[in-house]
Design a protein that fits this description.
The complex is a heterodimer of chains A (about 750) and B (about 140). Chain A is built from 19 helices and 28 strands. Chain A is an alpha+beta fold and about 750 residues long. Chain A is globular and about 95 Å long. The termini of chain A are far apart. The longest helix of chain B is centred in the last third of the chain and has 14 residues. Chain B starts with a strand and ends with a helix. Classes of the chains: A alpha+beta (about 750), B alpha+beta (about 140).
């Protein structure tokens, strides 16, 4: 039954209190461990069409009469456009329309970053559109740039209000500490660089707007367009059957979609607006740089007495302030914590969410400094973390819905114990070591999310829901859940998704929320269909429906007398279908729903050249029940590999005088390749969260990228004694850290020796 | 007008001078299995076989390869490497996957059982942002299973 509740909604660590209509059928969780289908490895149900190149991505959508768009962007990091005339572009070959700041809110004449969209042209071909940009008569007035986040802070040039979070008495905590350690850590700007660039194809069909878009959130696109254009949501159809990666950067329509919509309106033609790779590296968001000034106070036995952090998010020209202080607030038990976070508004492209925004950066600083503390106290780093385990959420004292971090530590122990053997393999110039770091993150998902299911007379089922599979394998997981609940073979389930006009509302695929949000709705829908099937079976065979079940595609009775193929029963429907529907219920009230984990990294450092190799990463995460261990392993490996890129090679560089971006291609911006991949060992605790939904599953998209940088930095420290303070750990940073370590050692040595 | 043998079929291509092979394949022949992710030869997503050699179609001018034999992912749909990628879960978003498979097919065409080092060398020009690399390596190692 539908009911209205007041609940807390969380996306990427941002909470809001909302009214929600929820509709939930109480279903008991399945027992822990692998079931017939759920919890066992499944190949992707859409693997073949993706591998064969048959899957139609937004990049492959070609509508009759479709025009192509090129966007004029500010070449300067800070400029005004005192004069612009787009009309000369109209005279260029193939051009159908040209728009500027006067025509569309998303086109601007005040440019706060290089790449700000200023004008757009659409033409028969992309080449024609791009060539016509040169004909636009535009005057740029360059303005002074602010690029240093501390400088922006001093000028009070901020995005939003500074965020202060405190508990206990921080100063008293420092006073009672036996040891206080401090450190400044910096992280760089990294780019999502999804293989499919941001793009949309739009067309007006009557009074309906069709939007084909590479997105993580079909319904968010629909809502934002509806609000912006002032047209009803049902007059907008958003389609995304396959998409080529997002990592947090594709949650909203962005300026390119609105440009396409406006041009489609003006030309009465379908219009594509697809960003080039160079534009992708400028204007589609990034993980912003951070500065973290951290203090830890502890007793001699390692008990934390105070944690303090001053955090700066170098947000760019706009965006939001990511929860970079989150790990300090939430990872360990500590009575006295004080953090301040402000977002510096600088003349750089705006940030966007990027796979565990804030927590990746904040975990690097916190966990690196915690190892400095461990060394000072001569306590084993893993033991230090165990001693500060939080039994309740330290930020608000709420109980956890489920937490198996101690079990993660236990399973990490054999990997951690390798450090003696690893260190022993060091040579005079190549030093080896092992480091670890813990992980905390959200990933509980939430309502609302809905699914339908139809079972045909052939006994096969189709899950229908307007969610999206961004490559994480959620489509496959939904098929597993439906098959498990219905009691039919996995191969007998199809999933239809990716179209707001062809299914009910579904969750965003961000914040590690797709499986925990959608999975319970799909299970509820399957249970609804199954109930109806068993009602029919009970009448057909004159049996009590309580005695009936569906197993491996057969309708069976408890006494074993009935064992008949499902299609014989539902065959009675002829071409009609059983229709089930399901909804995601609320999260457990008063509980904190989080994911946990630990990673152990092994590295080798050439102390002459500063080169760092990651040889092995062991990852143990606790995300509740695992639906598809094969897909889960892929998520973990992918997260760690992105983490290695973040730690060692990726960095967006800008000209420190002009703010112009220097790394706009994939040869300048260094993504990890297959040759950079270490041995990866992954393990999931796989214990259902008994308080969370009818599945007990949490999300896994983000957790694996969170502790990787810190574990590598700590392994470097273990190998060399050098303290890394900046990402990426370039050879330059590595050599600086080695030199500092040498000087520290010399300063510490008794005089005269 | 260049003539191409694409996946065993002859085509006369009407592309303008300056058009790339990727554009001819995707826009003119509607063979959209070949993806363009960077458009400047840095990522490998657009890899096709040109007379058997893995080639970046996004930086190959179509008029420069008149008469060539081109194999795209559509021509490899029944190659065991495709199944091997699916079996090993060697793809996530799938956008780079056709290019990965074309490169992998070229590799095992020259050496049926490549070593890990040979796989890493031959495949290092095909970027995968999802990080499916360990499974890609596995798929190539086990493609004959």
């Amino acid at each position: 039954m539908a009911r209205l509740i007041r609940t807390e909604k969380e996306v990427e660590g941002r909470y809001e209190e909302v009214w929600l209509v929820v509709d939930e059928d109480a279903l008991e969780q399945w027992p822990a461990g692998p079931r017939e289908i759920v919890g066992r490895p499944a190949e992707r149900i859409d693997g073949l069409e993706r591998a064969r190149g048959e899957a139609v991505y937004t990049a492959d959508v070609k509508l009759p009469g479709m025009l192509h768009t090129a966007v004029l962007r500010s070449p300067y990091a800070h400029a005004r456009v005192p004069r612009i005339d787009v009309s000369p572009a109209l005279a260029q070959p193939g051009v159908h329309a040209a728009i500027g700041p006067a025509d569309l809110d998303q086109l601007q004449d005040e440019c706060g970053y290089q790449g700000t969209p200023v004008a757009a042209v659409c033409a028969d071909t992309y080449e024609q559109a791009r060539a016509a940009l040169a004909a636009i008569d535009v005057e740029w007035a360059q303005l002074d740039v602010v690029l240093d986040p501390d400088d922006a802070g001093a000028r009070k040039q901020l995005v939003g209000e500074p965020r202060e979070r405190a508990r206990g008495d921080y100063e008293a905590g420092i006073a009672e500490a036996d040891v206080v350690v401090q450190g400044e850590y910096r992280t760089q700007v990294v780019l999502h660089n999804s293989m499919e660039t941001h793009q949309a194809v739009v067309q007006w069909v009557g009074d309906t707007l069709e939007v084909y878009i590479s997105t993580q959130y079909i319904w968010g696109i629909r809502e934002e367009i509806a609000e912006t254009l002032g047209i009803p949501g049902d007059k907008i159809r958003v389609v995304c059957h396959y998409m080529g990666g997002g990592f947090g950067s594709k949650n909203s329509p962005d300026d390119f979609t609105f440009i396409a919509i406006e041009l489609a309106k003006r030309t009465a033609r379908p219009v594509r607006c697809a960003l080039t790779r160079r534009e992708e590296n400028l204007a589609t968001g990034n993980r912003n740089a951070t500065i973290q000034r951290l203090t830890i106070g502890a007793k001699a036995d390692g008990t934390l007495t105070a944690l303090g952090g001053e955090y700066v998010n170098a947000t760019g020209w706009s965006g939001w302030s990511s929860p970079v202080e989150g790990p300090m607030q939430q990872l360990y038990s500590c009575p006295n914590v004080k953090t301040t976070t402000y977002a510096a508004r600088i003349n750089q492209p705006p940030m966007k969410a990027f796979r565990a925004p804030g927590f990746v950066e904040g975990t690097f600083g916190l966990e690196a400094l915690l190892d400095v503390l461990a060394a000072k106290l001569e306590i084993d780093p893993l033991e230090l973390r165990r001693r500060n385990y939080a039994a309740n959420d330290p930020a608000d004292d709420r109980p956890y819905s489920g937490k198996n971090l101690i079990e993660c530590y236990r399973r990490a122990q054999p990997h951690w114990d390798r450090r003696h053997e690893v260190r022993a393999r060091s040579t005079a110039t190549v030093k080896r070591g092992v480091g670890m770091a813990s992980q905390v993150w959200y990933g509980g998902g939430g309502p609302p999310s809905y699914a339908w299911i139809r079972v045909g007379s052939d006994g096969r089922a189709t899950v229908v829901t307007a969610m999206q599979d961004i490559g994480t394998g959620t489509k496959t997981a939904m098929a597993q859940i439906a098959a498990e609940e219905l009691g039919i073979p996995f191969e007998h389930v199809t999933v239809t998704l990716g179209d707001s006009a062809r299914g009910p509302f579904a969750s965003i695929s961000a914040g590690s929320s797709t499986i925990p949000s959608m999975g319970p709705a799909v299970r509820a829908a399957a249970a609804d269909a199954k109930r109806q099937i068993l009602e029919i079976a009970a009448q057909r065979h004159e049996l009590d429906e309580e005695q009936l079940d569906i197993r491996s595609g057969n309708v069976v009775s408890a006494d074993g007398k009935l064992d008949t193929p499902l299609e014989e029963l539902v065959g009675l429907l002829e071409s009609a279908q059983i229709l089930g529907s399901g909804a995601r219920g609320p999260n457990p009230a008063g509980m904190q729903v989080l994911t946990f984990g630990v990673q152990v990294a092994e590295v080798a450092v050439d102390i002459e050249t500063g080169e760092v190799w990651v040889d092995r990463v062991a990852a143990i995460h606790d995300v509740g029940r695992v639906i598809n261990p094969l897909g889960a392993e892929s998520q973990i490996e992918g997260g760690i590999i992105q983490g290695i890129g973040h730690t060692l090679s990726e960095q967006r560089l800008h000209d420190p005088r002009t703010g112009q971006i220097l790394t706009t291609s994939l040869d300048a911006y260094k993504l990890p390749t297959i040759a950079d991949v270490p041995e990866i060992v992954s393990e999931l605790v796989d214990e259902p969260d008994t308080h969370l939904t009818n599945l007990g599953s949490k999300g896994l998209g983000e957790p694996p990228i969170i502790p990787t940088a810190a574990a590598i930095a700590n392994a470097i420290r273990d190998a060399t004694g050098a303290e890394v303070h900046e990402l990426p750990i370039s050879r330059e940073e590595m050599l600086r850290a080695l030199k500092d370590a040498k000087e520290r050692e010399r300063d510490a040595a008794p005089a005269g020796i | 007008m260049p003539e191409l043998n694409v996946n065993g079929h002859m085509y006369e291509v009407h592309a303008t001078v300056g058009a790339t092979l990727a554009e001819a394949l995707r826009d003119e022949l509607s063979l959209t299995g070949t993806k363009v992710a960077c458009g400047e030869g840095h990522c490998g997503a657009c890899t096709v076989l040109l007379d058997g050699i893995p080639t970046l179609s996004c930086i190959t001018l179509v008029h420069a390869v008149d008469g060539a034999k081109v194999t795209t992912i559509e021509g490899l749909r029944d190659h065991p490497m495709v199944q091997s990628f699916v079996r090993a879960d060697a793809l996530q978003c799938g956008f780079c996957t056709p290019g990965q498979i074309v490169s992998a097919v070229a590799l095992v065409g020259t050496k049926r059982k490549p070593s890990t080092e040979e796989i890493r060398h031959a495949m290092s020009g095909n970027l995968c942002r999802c990080g499916a690399y360990p499974k890609i390596e596995e798929a190539i190692r086990t493609w004959q299973d």
